[in-house]
Specification:
Blueprint lengths: L1 E5 L4 H12 L3 E6 L10 E4 L7 H9 L3 E4 L6 H6 L1 H22 L3 E6 L21 H16 L4 E5 L1 E2 L9 H10 L4 E4 L3 E2 L2 E2 H14 L3 E5 L5 E2 H12 L6 E4 L19 H7 L6 H13 L2 H7 L11
Parallel strand pairs: 1-2, 1-4, 2-3, 4-5, 5-6, 6-11, 7-10, 8-13
Antiparallel strand pairs: 9-12
Helix pairs in contact: 1-7, 4-5, 6-8, 8-10
The chain binds NADP nicotinamide-adenine-dinucleotide phosphate (NAP).
Length: about 325
């Protein structure tokens, strides 16, 4: 299929493009400020917050299916730029859904586990969201805009880690860099999540598109843990001293956007719809380590390298 992926330079979009390309799909990627000049598929740069940009992208791509991952996904940036957060996270998804509805093509919209307040944990798709931050509020508004414009769209609430272009985007990369530098760091013992490896999530997204699932689904890992425990598991997997990670509380961290403590989501609805259990962070971490050993991060980053001038004088 001709698969349009917005946010193709982002942590999820990049790994999704890798998986989709590997599965034989024709990838059409939309990047924002960064680009992928050496990627083995078409990439268009566009500022999707600008009027007319989406229409131009749509005319260029003529997609058979769409995965919308682009967002203002930094929590603190959303607090500082609420209008941009509303435009990108709430309005744009509705506009994409209207275009997908008009063409009758499958759409997966990427939302977040952070639509919940994290007070209780164990959330199902039937639980009422209660977003705590500008990021989470605008992402919830985006979900609602998508399903209002296109009830046949799939909205996936996610949390993931993996290899990024910058090498610093995901929590796993952050822990790893500090461990490699033997720099002590804090890990929150009171923030729980159920992350998937971005590549595992990417394969689930392709399955959701093929199955044409509709509605809200939790596409999170099958096991949950604290961010501290995740850092310790990662340190052990990569052979670094876990003691470099200090147990800490998020309450004392002085972050601009409020963090929800127990973002543990049940994924039974998606597992039942796809007919198999979803992977867990354990399998994800094992695959993340294998990717590291196989040079996967460098191969991803090579897509961003400017073509070298081979001409001789
Ligand atoms: N990371 C997580 O653990 C997590 C957790 C829950 C939900 N999510 C959701 O998952 C999705 C992907 O997140 P991510 O971590 O992969 O994001 P990311 O690494 O921050 O990347 C964001 C992507 O959006 C693009 N973008 C931003 N502003 C744009 C604009 N004005 N025009 C065009 N493109 C623009 C960026 O392009 P450039 O970089 O080229 O400018 C980039 O490709 C988001 O919807 C996010 O809300 C992420």
């Amino acid at each position: 299929m001709r698969l349009l992926i917005t946010g193709v330079t982002g942590l999820l979009g990049l790994n999704l493009a890798w998986e989709a390309h590997r599965h034989g799909h024709e990838v059409l990627g939309v990047a924002g400020r960064r680009s992928l000049p050496a990627a083995p598929f078409a990439v268009q740069q566009a500022d999707l917050s600008r009027p007319g940009a989406l229409a131009a992208v749509w005319a260029w791509a003529r997609p058979d299916a769409v995965v919308h991952t682009a967002a203002l996904a930094h929590l603190d940036a959303c607090e500082h730029q609420p209008a941009l957060a509303r435009q990108l996270n709430a309005a744009l998804p509705g506009e994409i859904a209207a275009l997908a509805a008009a063409d009758g093509i499958p759409l997966v919209h990427i939302s977040t586990d952070a639509v919940f307040d994290g007070a209780r944990g164990g959330y199902t798709e039937d639980d009422a969201p209660r977003p705590l931050s500008t990021y989470a509020r605008t992402k919830l508004a985006g979900e609602q805009a998508v399903l209002a414009a296109y009830p046949q769209a799939a909205v996936l609430r996610v949390n993931f880690f993996g290899w990024s272009l910058s090498g610093t985007r995901s929590l796993a990369e952050w822990f790893l860099h500090n461990l490699q530098a033997r720099r002590p760091m804090n890990g929150f013992t009171d923030v729980f999540f159920c992350p998937l490896l971005a590549n595992h999530l990417a394969r689930l997204i392709l399955e959701v598109l093929t199955a044409r699932l509709a509605g809200v689904f939790h596409a999170t890992g099958s096991a949950c843990l604290s961010k501290y425990a995740f850092g310790v598991a990662l340190a052990r997997r990569f052979g670094y001293p876990p003691a470099l990670i200090r147990p800490a509380s998020v309450a004392q961290a002085g972050l601009a956007a409020r963090r929800a403590p127990r973002l543990t989501l049940r994924n039974d609805k998606l597992a039942n719809a796809l007919g198999h259990p979803l992977p867990s962070w354990r399998e994800g971490l094992a695959a993340f380590f294998a990717q590291y050993q196989q040079g996967y991060p460098a191969r991803l980053r090579a897509w961003a390298a400017e073509a070298t001038n081979q001409a001789t004088k």
